[in-house]
Each structure stands twice: as C-alpha cells, then as structure tokens.
C-alpha cells in the first residue's frame, strides 16, 4: 500500500462516527428493556448484545462483500493477500474504518426487530434471524442503494443519505413480518366470539426511566449515524454537509417529540410519555434519508409530520392490523423510515419537487421504497415461515408467562435485590396450547369463587386475623379480583424475594451452582374481622391453584389489636369503612 494516501482527519471522523453508532446499541437495549416487562429484561439485553456479535461475523464473512465488493468480493471485501479493499474508498479514509462503520449500521438494522418480537420469541430462532439478515437481506438491498446497485444509478439516483430505507425500513418491515408470524403476547387482545383478536389491552413496560435513557442515547448516537455518513471532514463541502446533518437531525427529533406530545395531549387528555419518546425516534428515523440535502426548516417539518404519523401508525398496527409490537418498532422504523425516504423527493435542495425539480426524484424514491419493501418481505417472510414449520419461533405459553429470563436463560431476575413490578397473567401447564392459554388467561380475570357470602358481624369483640399470601407475580391480578369479589376492602402488597423447600430450583450464575435461588414473589397482607379467614383462604386457593410447584403459600396469624391513627379507634372499629 502507498503511504499517506488516506487523510487522518477523514479516518478519525469515520472511526468516531462508528463509535457513536456502536453506542446506539445500548440505546436500543434500554428502550426495549424499559418498554417491556421486567421478567424479560435479561432476554432483551442478551438479544441486543448478540445482534452485534452475530452481525459483525456475518457481515464480515459475506455481507460486506455483497454490499460493496461486487461479484468478485473476498471475505470482508478484502483480498487477504494484497490487503486491498475491493470496493474502493470514496473518501480519504482508511478502508478498515469504512468496514467498522458499515458493520455497526448492519447491526442497527438487525436489532430493530428485537423490540417488536419481544417477550415471546425463542432465543435460538432469534439467533438464526439475526445471522440471516446480516448475511444476505440487509447487504443486498444495501448494495442497490449504497454499493453502486441499480437504484443508485437510476435517473437522478435514489437518495438515502444515512439509511431511512437501507437500515430503518429494512428493520421495520422485518419487525412487521416477524411479529405477524409470532402472534400477539398472551393477554394482549380480548377474544371475540369467533376467537379472533379483539380490543387490545395495555401491557405497560416496567421502566419508563430505562426507555427514556435509551432514547437519549439513540438521539446522541444519531449525530454519528447521520453526521458521520459524510465519511469525510477534510474539505469545506463535506464539513458543510456534516454540520447540516447535525442541525437537521436535532431539529427533526425535537419537532417530532413536540408533535407527539401535543397530539397525545389532545387525543388522550394527557401527554403520553412513552409515545413522546417514540416521537423523537420517529423524527430521527424520518430525517435520516435527507439529513444532508434538507434545510433546517424542512427538517423541522419532516420531524413534525413524523411525530404525528407515529401516533396513528402505532394505533394502526395495534388496533387495526392486530399486530403486537411492544415498543412501536414497526411504526418508528418501518412507517417513518419509508415516509422520510419519500420526503427527500419533496424537500431536497438538489432534486426536490418543492424546489422546482419536478416529480422525478419522488418517483425514484417511491420505487426504491417499494422494491426494498418487497425484497425484505419475501426473504424475511420465507425465513420465518421455514423456521416456524421446523424449529418453531415462539416459546411455550408456560415459558412466556413466567418470563423469558428464567425459561430461556436460567436467570431468576434481571433485578436481583431490587423491587419488581407485578405482571398480569396466569400460570399454565407446559402441555397447553396458545389458544387454551388465552382462554385460561381470560378465565383468570373472572371473579371467583362464586357464591361467597359475607358474614355480617356487629360485635366489637370480633376476632381479627391476618392472612399473608405469597404468590408469583403473574397471579396477582386473579388474586386481586377474587379478593374484590369477596368484599376485602384493604390489602397491602409488597414485592419480595424468596424460595421454598426446593430452594428455588438449581440454577447457575457464571457456571457456578447457586445454593439457593431467590425468586421474585408478591406478598399480600390482609387483616379481616367481618369476613372469616377461611373464606379468604378458599378464594386465594381458587385464584392461585395450578397444581404445580410454585403456587405459593398462605399464612394465618392472630391479630391482638389494630389502631386507626387518624381517629384513635381500635380493634374491630379500626378495620371498618366509614
């Protein structure tokens, strides 16, 4: 190799941008973890880490060569003997810098799917998907646009500066196909009379804090995603493009979040936090295609429209298509990715309709969106179809309900020592089908047992009894409904960790057997006087019983006295409603 042919400034810029995009993987992990339930936190983290690991290997072996090297590409786009980059470098950067820059882009496309398929996907099936998209799906459509393929040479050229289509729409459509093949999480939709999904139920994520942290990390990383796509910084022209990309990226994210904030405030009567976070991401995805050729005013408008579009997009996917996407990945990356790509044909300074250049650019952008969508739909659809018919892509209903952390990874909880949030659900046998699990879930929400009568006692010397119930988190909702039906007017619920005589089962941490595995439980404390303790016990057993290990335990204590602090009442009177 000749010496000093690469600009140190350009190389450093590409490497710095690659590091920023790499850090976005942490952002995706936090968003997906926060927007899903705590019992799946470890599984989400594992999938995001493995996306990067598998994507790196697959993209190096074959993907990069397909995307940039052409038909004669060697491993990783290099001839190992001459150490020459087959595709060539457009700028003055070292080709190895370009390799790592493109590798983290590929990993981003793959990891988008993780959130939409969260909480019910087999880990083994996900590994296969991640390898396949990095090996062939992403590189082929990427070659059409960034590797000198047919879309890049068509007319004025298909313009996707940093990947609204190449990265985000590819990931978003893959997420749509994967979530459709999987089906919704148990309990996500009420069942209609003909057994089809009906009205959606809200299944909140367990940590809005983690979700927000993830969005801020992604927003930060996007400056490398878009600004770094100049792949140079040593000339005035590219310095302007990089600076423009920074400004338009930030502007679109800001207006996207504001649009979503005010729209949800109007629609839902309160500004929705999680949707507003998605609004920022929607603006970021939409501006990615034209961050270099859109003026700041146009970026503000694109972000504004994307912030509105994401609200209706998420509702459309959830309520009309009946596709369960826990984090909104289909709307953010699929819908807004396509929208942002089309906006280039309207707002580009160089080719846009609103700058007097006619419809040619818009037509090419539309053709490119359709072509890439078709390619991804066919290839990813075929992959998921084959996996579903062979190894299966969904965990058993039992494993889904207890959480993928314990069932897929032997991780009792990703939050050992911290409070846990109860999850709605019901335990089922591993032999039960998904439809039967849905039915059992619905039945668990029905008040039971029927016909319980309340004893009317007026004696102030009535016995007071404390009933303490220890049970799994996913049994809390049926237990609460049973207590409401019984007439219990007060209870205290806390999150605890513990195990029974089985010591929580034999689990391993870093290969070492744990002497006792403390599992997350809920402790429900009820003090009764009017209602006999036996009735409380019967109602609790009916709500909690599955016949398997882990149904829980009930403890009964005599209470000597109760004092109501506000009034000074004691004993029986202190337990009565006013």
What topology emerges from the helices and strands here?
Elements: H1 8-34, H2 41-69, E1 78-79, E2 84-85, H3 95-116, H4 123-146, H5 164-182, E3 189-191, E4 197-200, H6 208-227, H7 236-268, H8 273-287, H9 296-320, H10 329-347, H11 360-389, H12 397-402, H13 404-409, H14 434-444, E5 465-471, H15 476-486, E6 492-498, E7 508-509, E8 512-513, E9 519-528, H16 533-544, E10 553-558
Antiparallel strand pairs: 1-2, 3-4, 5-9, 5-10, 6-9, 7-8
Written overview of the protein:
- With 578 residues, this protein is α+β, with helices and mostly antiparallel strands.
- The protein has 2 domains: 8-389, Ammonium transporter fold (Orthogonal Bundle); 465-575, 2-Layer Sandwich (Alpha-Beta Plaits).
- The protein has helices at residues 8-34, 41-69, 95-116, 123-146, 164-182, 208-227, 236-268, 273-287, 296-320, 329-347, 360-389, 397-402, 404-409, 434-444, 476-486, 533-544, and strands spanning 78-79, 84-85, 189-191, 197-200, 465-471, 492-498, 508-509, 512-513, 519-528, 553-558.
- Strands 6-9-5-10 form a 4-stranded antiparallel β-sheet, with helices on one face.
- The longest helix has 33 residues, at 236-268.
- The protein is elongated and about 90 Å long.
- Mean pLDDT is 86; it is low at 1-5, 71-90 and 449-460.
């Amino acid at each position: 190799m000749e010496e000093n042919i690469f600009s140190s400034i350009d190389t450093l810029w590409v490497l710095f941008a690659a590091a920023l995009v790499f850090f976005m993987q942490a952002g995706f992990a936090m968003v997906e973890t926060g927007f899903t339930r705590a019992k799946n936190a470890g599984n989400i983290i594992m999938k995001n880490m493995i996306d990067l690991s598998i994507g790196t290997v697959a993209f190096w072996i074959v993907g990069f060569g397909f995307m940039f090297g052409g038909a004669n590409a060697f491993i990783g786009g290099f001839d190992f003997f001459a150490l020459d980059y087959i595709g060539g470098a457009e700028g003055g950067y070292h080709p190895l810098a370009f390799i790592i820059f493109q590798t983290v882009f590929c990993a981003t496309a793959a990891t988008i799917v993780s959130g939409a398929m969260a909480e019910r996907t087999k880990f083994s099936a996900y590994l296969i998907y991640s390898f396949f998209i990095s090996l062939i799906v992403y590189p082929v459509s990427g070659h059409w646009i960034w590797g000198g393929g047919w879309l890049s040479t068509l007319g004025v050229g298909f313009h996707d500066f940093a990947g609204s289509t190449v990265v985000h729409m590819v990931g978003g459509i893959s997420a749509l196909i994967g979530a459709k093949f999987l089906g919704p999480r148990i309990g996500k939709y009420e069942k209609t009379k003909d057994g089809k999904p009906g009205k959606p139920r809200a299944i909140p994520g367990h940590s809005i804090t983690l979700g927000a942290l993830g969005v801020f990390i992604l927003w930060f990383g996007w400056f490398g995603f878009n600004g770094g796509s100049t792949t140079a910084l040593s000339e005035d022209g590219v310095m302007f493009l990089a600076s423009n990309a920074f400004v338009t990226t930030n502007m679109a994210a800001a207006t996207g979040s504001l649009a979503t904030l005010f729209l949800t405030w109007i629609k839902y009567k309160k500004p929705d936090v999680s949707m507003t976070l998605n609004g920022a991401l929607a603006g970021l995805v939409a501006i990615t295609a034209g961050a270099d050729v859109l003026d700041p005013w146009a970026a503000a408008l694109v972000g504004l429209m994307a912030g509105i579009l994401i609200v209706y997009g998420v509702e459309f996917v959830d309520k009309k298509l009946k596709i369960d996407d826990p984090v909104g990945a289909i709307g953010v990356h699929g819908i807004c990715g396509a929208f942002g790509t089309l906006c280039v044909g309207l707002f580009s300074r160089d080719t846009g309709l609103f700058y007097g250049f006619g419809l040619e650019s818009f037509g090419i952008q539309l053709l490119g969106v359709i072509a890439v969508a078709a390619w991804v739909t066919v290839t990813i659809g075929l992959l998921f179809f084959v996996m579903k018919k062979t190894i299966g892509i969904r965990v058993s209903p039992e494993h889904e309900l207890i959480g993928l952390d314990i069932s897929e990874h032997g991780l009792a909880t990703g939050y050992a020592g911290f409070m846990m949030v109860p999850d709605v659900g019901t335990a089922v046998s591993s032999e039960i089908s998904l439809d039967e699990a849905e039915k059992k879930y619905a039945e668990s929400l029905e008040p039971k047992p029927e016909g319980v009568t309340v004893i009317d006692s007026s004696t102030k010397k009535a016995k007071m009894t404390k009933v303490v119930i220890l049970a799994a988190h996913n049994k809390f909702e049926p237990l609460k409904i049973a207590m409401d039906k019984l007439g219990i007017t007060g209870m205290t619920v806390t999150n605890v960790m513990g195990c029974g005589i089985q010591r929580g089962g034999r689990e391993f941490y870093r290969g070492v057997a744990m002497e006792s595995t403390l599992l997350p439980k809920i402790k429900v404390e009820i003090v009764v006087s009017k209602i006999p303790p036996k009735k409380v016990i019967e109602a609790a057993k009916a709500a909690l019983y599955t016949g398997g290990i882990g149904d829980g335990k009930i403890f009964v204590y005599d209470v000597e006295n109760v004092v109501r602090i506000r009034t000074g009442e004691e004993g029986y009177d202190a337990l009565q409603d006013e």
